[in-house]
Amino acid sequence: MRKDFDFRSILRNNAVTIMFVLLCIICLSYSGQTVPYVMYELFGRLSRNAFIVLALILPIVAGMGINFAITIGAMAAQIAALWVVEWGIGGLGGFGVAAFMTVPIAAFFGYLIGNLLNRMKGQEMIGGLILGYFANGLYQLLFLFIFGNLIPLKAPGLVIKGSTGVANTIDLSTERGFKYALDGLWKVPFGTGLYITCGAVAVVAVVMLLLKKMSKKKAIITVGIAAASCLLYQIPFVASLFSMVQVPMVTFMVVGLLCLFNVGLMNTRLGQQFRAVGQNRTVANASGINVDRTRLIAIMISTVLAGWGQLIFVQNMGSFQTYGAHEQVGLYAGAAILVGGASIRKANNAQALLGCILFHLLFIVAPSAGKNLFGDAAIGEYFRVFISYGVIALALVMHAWRGVQKKKKAKAESQ
């Protein structure tokens, strides 16, 4: 009886993830695409999307749900990118300047967002979503009327020809841009990247064991997994699956640093406050925690990280649509983290990365599968957009259902 209960509990808690795994397998089998090509596309998408999905974790832990207002962080990044192109600071230096400029802009926006969300506790997600739409109107005004009109822009191609306002597309592939500023620093074949990563993980595990920061059992398991991964790659069939993949090491290192930042922050006093506020605001307040300030910090950090994530995205793409590149950021990132098994109350690095893999894998194979099954690739496009909204809706329904079940259980125990 106990095992049956555990199985049903695991199935219920991971229903979205299991559904996506099945959908990915079905769509991959009908897509007609080779696995090496799918892996090539998947790693490209992971390098440009993983960072911004990880930016959602802190507000979730702090009990604010999915921060759909990361759209505003993406706007801050695009404002910084515009000025970098205007000033003609290209390459890695331009990317660094844009990242530096994004911090005060996104932090200021995050401060405003956090103060507003503190006044609508319990409705943070819908508030963040509507706030993103409102901010988009101001963004359009800024780029259509103020930039290029009240504030002149002199860089070639930045202003709409014969009109005012910023051009529809900002090209980062010119000498004034920063296309592949991170991705192009150090690219290696998948096998080389695997060996480097596994070696680094093994060294860190040994050092932590010597410093008594990790148990012997955990260190042995970590080194064993790293060694097994390298041995598995020696199988020709496995190696052939990743034959087309080129890994942008610096970009994935930055993603890894964000994972370490999230873990490290959770072990600090501030991280404990995030957890306490997320679990119960009333108890946290009674414990002397400034609830509003803690929530505000979570949103500000998330907004800044979202801005950096958008910069990583646009440097990978080499250009961005001035008036539309930011619009779906919150939706897709939110759907991705939910696909990985996170909820609107709990999330971690593993769930964010797994969700990013599954969500974007479906995005790769769904159009081809739709074309082969129904003769129209647009069906696959519609399907994956439907899934994006459906996953969020399902997560909200499941959260509400669990809340009702907890209340029923508490009521039954009190009687």
Q: Please, could you describe this protein's structure?
A:
This protein is an all-alpha fold and 415 residues long. It has a single domain, classed as ABC transporter involved in vitamin B12 uptake, BtuC (Orthogonal Bundle). It contains 17 helices and four strands. A two-stranded antiparallel sheet has the order 1-4. Helix 2 runs parallel beside helix 16. The longest helix is centred in the last third of the chain and has 38 residues. The radius of gyration is 23 Å and the shape is globular. It starts with a helix and ends with a helix. The N terminus is likely disordered.
Please tag this protein with its features.
single chain; 415 residues; mainly alpha; ABC transporter involved in vitamin B12 uptake, BtuC; two-stranded antiparallel ribbon; 73% helix
CATH architecture: Orthogonal Bundle
**Mean model confidence by pLDDT:** 87
Task: Using the CA coordinates, give the radius of gyration.
Answer: 23 Å
**Separate helix tally:** 17
Indicate how many domains the architecture comprises.
Answer: 1
Under CATH, the topology is which? Answer: ABC transporter involved in vitamin B12 uptake, BtuC
Compact overview of the structure:
The chain has 415 residues and is mainly α. It is 73% helix and 3% strand. The protein contains 17 helices and 4 strands.
Indicate the topology.
Blueprint: H1 2-13, H2 15-31, H3 35-54, H4 57-61, H5 70-87, H6 91-117, H7 124-146, E1 169-171, E2 187-189, H8 190-210, H9 216-233, H10 236-241, E3 246-248, H11 249-266, H12 269-279, H13 281-286, H14 291-317, E4 319-321, H15 329-339, H16 349-374, H17 377-414
Antiparallel strand pairs: 1-4, 2-3
